[in-house]
Amino acid sequence: MSDTSADDTEQQLLAALVMQDNSLDLNKEYVAYAGKDKPDDEPTATKDDVITALKTVCDPEIMINIYDMGLIYNINIHDNGDVFIDMTLTAPGCPAAGVLPQQAADAVSALKGVGNVEVKIVWEPAWSLDKLSDEARAMIDFF
Structure pTM? Predict the structure, then answer.
């Protein structure tokens, strides 16, 4: 993925923050990209590696990582190291909508053994508190 494409995607996601009703259009596809082709001689990263990287990205309002928040619905790693992630947000009006998907793509693409990364926002099933990990639930209860 070229830097221009990543910049365009980031601009698209950031534009979602300034929409008049402050919510994303549920009929529009929002995708963040990062990375580059993985060298053929490099072993492909594991799902655990990808999860560890995703856990470095936190919701800025409550400082819980996006994986434990239950925002990551699917991780698909291809043999060539390309990673495809389905991610949701707590709500279409989520203030972090413009940054979290790109932060997730950037974190995963920084891993050794990863090629191109695509993080797509999905709305089904809708996010709910029951998607929180036990760790995230304990942190929310602490607040």
Answer: 0.80
